[in-house]
Amino acid sequence: MKRFLGLTSGFIMAISLMAPHAIAGTKVELITNMGTLKVELNDQAAPATVANFLRYVDDGSYNGSIFHRLIPEFVVQGGGFDTEYKKLPTYSSVVNESNNGLKNQRGTLAMARTQDPNSATRQFYINLNNNQSLNAGRNAGYTVFGKVTLGDDILTKMAQVPTGMNMSLRARDVPKQNIVLQQVRRLNDEQASQ
């Protein structure tokens, strides 16, 4: 038994020494007309979702899109419409990975979807609060795949934008002032640390 514990402790120690490099995820910058957010994606916990999100980042189609839904103390949602409220093209939907252990907490990014758990495409949201009701449980939940590492003050600023009804979208909770994703891009290690 001692030998087993010794091997286990050594194995755990080796894992913990490797962990900082293994856990570090892809870094992305979201430059908005209200300021810049830096995010770290969790490639390990949500590999399909991160790959899906990065597909839109890499093809440049998030650039010029808007956050079209804003509910203070809940979420700000975007990536699916341009500034004229025209729906943007999508790739195939991605499988729901909401049982990955990540929670919908303030500053985390998650995929928006319809009632079908596997219907997420390009729209994502950022939690403005800890939203336990969006986590997997009795229902499928919404896949969390990253977190804001810089720009919490920008989220606070976004949450203060007045909202209302928008007839183009036939939706409530639409910001009365456009919150535009001017550029969304991957960051290398040097850019991420600036």
TrEMBL record:
GO terms for molecular function: isomerase activity. It comes from the Bacteria. The keyword Signal applies. Its EC number is 5.2.1.8. It catalyses: [protein]-peptidylproline (omega=180) = [protein]-peptidylproline (omega=0). Residues 1-24 form the signal peptide. Residues 32-186 form the PPIase cyclophilin-type domain. Belongs to the cyclophilin-type PPIase family. PPIases accelerate the folding of proteins. It catalyzes the cis-trans isomerization of proline imidic peptide bonds in oligopeptides. This is Peptidyl-prolyl cis-trans isomerase.
